[in-house]
Every structure is written in C-alpha cells, then in structure tokens.
Design a protein that fits this description.
about 190 residues; mainly beta; SH3 type barrels; 1 helix; about 5% helix
Amino acid sequence: MPIKVDAYTVGGKASGILARPGHLREILEQTGELSLSNVRWQPLGASQAQSAGDLTIAIDDVLVAVTDDESTIPVHASWHALRVLIGPYEVEGELPTLPGYDPDRALARPNGEFVLVREPRLGRVGGELMPIGHEALVNRYDVERVEADIMLGFFFPGAMLPDERDPTAGMPPAPGPPPETVPETDQA
C-alpha cells in the first residue's frame, strides 16, 4: 500500500508517495534522505501546488513530516503540551514521555533526529495554525524555540527556551483541571 507523506521544508511543502517500503521514521533516520514519487510541490506563500515528479529531500531539509502510515504513537505515555518554532513554521501539539518522567533526574535522552508530536497543528509563524494529521515527526535539530509544560532543552539542542524569570510566559495551556484556590485565613 502506498504511503502518502507531506514534508514541510523552508521553501514549502512537498506532498508525495514514499518511493521505498518502510515506515517514515525508519526511512528518514536510516537513509538520510526522503525520496518521494508523484510529488506536488507548494512553494511557501503560494496557494496552489504544482506537479514536481520525483523528488529527494535531504534529511536536514525536512523540518516536519506527516504521513498516513500506521500510527507510531506509544501506548503508555504522558503527554505534554508543546509549541515550537521551526524555520518559517510554528507547530503545536503534544509530546510523549514515559510515565513518571522527570527531566531534572532522567538519564534517558531522545535518540534520532526526529521527535513525535501528537495532534499537530502547523502554520506560518504568527499565522493561523491548522491541523495537519494525527501525528508528525519534527526535526529536533532545526527547532529554534520551544515552549512546553516541562523542561525540554535536551530534546531540542540549540533551541531557545522561555524566559526563566517567568516560566509560564507564552506557554501553551497545560492539560488537566485548573489548580484549586486556597482561601486565605485571618491570623491575629
């Protein structure tokens, strides 16, 4: 069965069919390139895509990749609200970690060039974000800024983090119920 892929680059979006069998993540990380056939290329800022035939994109040029392949979402995961700036795009979604994950004490580090994001929404920086699929692979080495409900600096090396003086500035809302308020007591 052909696997459809949308690859977002600095120059635009390439939509096509994987030229070889396998899962998208394995292909990206094992071959170092993304080969697509029957590509429709939509330059950044253009409203229409045009036929581009077959296209090979270097792995470093793929900022975000989305596929209709079977899900790779982990069964047991804690999900963290996430917003990243990557090239001309802003991406929001949820990043999985193992249950009980503590970034201050964890020895485990992400491996590979791409991280999984669930329910991604993508748009131009400062523009409207639109859903692009159920999951996306984000090139963690190209992320310029990251905001999340936990510290993820080592997930995105070189990315700018929110201002440490106000850790909630500009962050997406954390999932879950709002914190309870404790009434003040009158002390004499």
